[in-house]
Amino acid sequence: MAPDRAAAASPEDTAAELNEITATVNRASSGASQASNVVQATRGNAESSGVVVRDTVTAMDAIEKSAREKCEICCGGFNRPTNRERIKRKLWASATD
After folding, report:
1. What's the pLDDT score for residue 49?
2. Residue 9 has what pLDDT?
3. pLDDT per residue as tens digits for the range 25-78
4. What is the mean pLDDT of the chain?
């Protein structure tokens, strides 16, 4: 006997199901597009943050170099034990004034 033809969907039902599938695909595509935009924005923020961190480290290195040079000129160097204690006392005194 031939397969039951009554179980076959009507053209209207098939069209409605195709419309649902199309709508689902469109929503998924929209969600993927939004996710891509978020990823691009996040990447841009991370790259900008990396630049800020690099510039900050560069500035801190320059400050440290300058401080060491001043210390060499004024105090004979921070790494000498006798100067280290004298510098610490001066810094502590100026911080507590």
Report:
1. 92
2. 75
3. 999 999 999 999 999 999 999 999 999 999 999 999 999 888 888 877 776 665
4. 82
DSSP letter string over the chain? ----GGGSPPHHHHHHHHHHHHHHHHHHHHHHHHHHHHHHHHHHHHHHHHHHHHHHHHHHHHHHHHHHHHHHHHHS-TTSHHHHHHHHHHHHHHHH-
**How far, in Å, are 19, 23, 92, 94 from residue 86 at the CA level?**
83, 77, 10, 12
Contact 96, 88 (CB under 8 A): no
Q: Which two tokens stand for residue 36?
A: 């891509």
| pTM of the shown model | 0.48
| The two structure tokens encoding residue 38 | 């978020």
Per-residue confidence (pLDDT) for residue 77, from 0 to 100: 61
Q: CB–CB of 87/75 below 8 Å?
A: yes
CA angle 20, 21, 27 (to 5 degrees): 90
